[in-house]
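Reminder to self: tokens first, then the designed residues, so the page reads top to bottom the way the pipeline ran.
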């Protein structure tokens, strides 16, 4: 048996996160993307911030056009 680095439980099968190298079980990561929950959540937050930055830039440009 192997140990999940996220929940620290002994499980029959673990996967290795391609981002940080942590071992994770099926419950604490995405097997398809090969990302543990921590890295997947970080990636989602980064994308949300990028989208918010783009929206801010568009709003700034629109405001400048009306001045």
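Designed residues (67 positions):
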């Amino acid at each position: 048996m192997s140990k999940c680095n996220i929940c620290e439980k002994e499980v029959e099968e673990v996967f290795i996160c391609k981002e940080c190298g942590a071992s994770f079980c099926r419950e604490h990561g995405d097997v398809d993307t090969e990302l543990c929950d921590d890295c997947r959540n970080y990636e989602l937050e980064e994308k949300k911030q990028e989208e918010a930055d783009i929206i801010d830039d568009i709003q700034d440009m629109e405001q400048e056009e009306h001045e």
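The mean pLDDT is 94.
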